[in-house]
Amino acid sequence: MTGTVDNLERSDASPIKPNLAFANASLERSFGLHYHAFYYRYAQASLALGIILIAADFLVDHLAFRTERANVYRLQLCLPILGAGIAYCFSRFARRHWQAVMSGFIVLVASSLFWVLLIIDREAGMGLSSWVGVLNFVFLEFYCFVILGVQFRYALASGLLILLMFEGAMLLEFKANRPMFYYWSYHIVTLFILAGVVGWWREYVLRKDFSMQVSLKEARNFLKCQNDILESEVEKRTRKIRHTQDAAIMLLASVVETRDNETGGHVQRTQHYLRALAKQLQLHPDFARYLTEHQTDILFKSAPLHDIGKVGIPDSILLKPGKLDPEEFEIMKTHTTLGFDAIENAERRLGVEVEFLACAKEIALNHQEKWDGSGYPRKLMGSEIPISARLMAVADVYDALTTRRVYKDAIPHDAAVAIIIEGAGRHFDPDVVGAFAAIADEFEVIASRYSDGNGFREAEDVSTTTELGGKVSGQALVQTGRQLRNLSEAVIRLNPPDGSDTEYSSTARSHPALNS
Fold this sequence. Notes:
The protein is 71% helix and 1% strand. It is an all-alpha fold. The chain has a two-stranded antiparallel sheet. The longest helix has 80 residues, at 178-257. The two termini are 72 Å apart.
């Protein structure tokens, strides 16, 4: 980045010297390469234009002065020189040194043309000593400085040679009349200076434009570099915020899980169950518009907070073995509204809408609703239930069925699948159950991978790289986790909570398969 800034400053502060050269040698080389490449074709076209103009001069003089025999020399001498110049400019040497080559050919054309005009003078025609000679001189000078397209230093050299040749020709013509020679010389030199000033200004403007283009290009490159750095920094900060956000979510979920030591992997399992269902339903016409890749990521991130309201449920209800009485069940049902209110209160305090919190709030409030309208807290029915909550209902119940809780033992995977399929159209959205049945084997793999026992065994065998860049052994993580859990339990005992629900739905709790 520093190099880019330095280059930008150098090109902005690179003045053009009076001899038409940039103070910055690098910029001067760049201009030379640009000029050489751009004006080469332009110079070739100018030679072709010269052929046309000389042919036109011959035609006009021939029509006006048919007796001038020297007029034909324009065709016999000048045109072949220009033709040779055009042919030679395609050679390798001429391509590399085209400015010197083109300037040389124009000087040759000028010398031959002045010779033709001298002969016309001697034939008593309109030659070098007439206005025709002056007009030809002016044309040749402007041709060098403007039309030919060579840089000023080449135009100045060829223009001076043309001036000297014209002065020499006039000296031959007016050798007996020196005052007339001086008279014409004054005007000829004045015209040369005028042509030179025009040529100098032309290149000055071209150099200023080139300098501006280089500055703009470097500014664009600098801004692009800055933009890339900013994008990288924003991405880095966003990633850091996202990691912090994910850590905060998992911390909140872990606080809930410390209330029940037997469901340590519940958060991870339900996250992956939810994502598996979402991906399976992405091509379903009723779900495709909602379940984009981005929304699937939001669901995965929001899932851990679905039971956040359990922190408000007393241990006597949350950890009670066996069936709850009606009064206890009513208290447990409040975990949905408690979770919703907690997240909504957090949103209000933040003062901004956070996408994943809106989704988490939706899941927390509605994941206990049932397809037939018999759920809680709002008794929503069918498509009134948000899609996110319909997916979580299946994921939550499957995990409750297949894991051990204080009030029940785990049941086999096949039995859990049968219970969920049986609940299609009553407890669950039939389409979601269809997706679940199609990927039931994937649920079993997720359950095995993130089982409560496997979580600790895997931690003992691997090392984990922390966000700070260091490595912490799995055993150390286990010990830290146990210490945090013990500390959390102590806090709970000192500050008894007010109420919530269990992770297991009331439908599954009363199912005959669990009471056997």
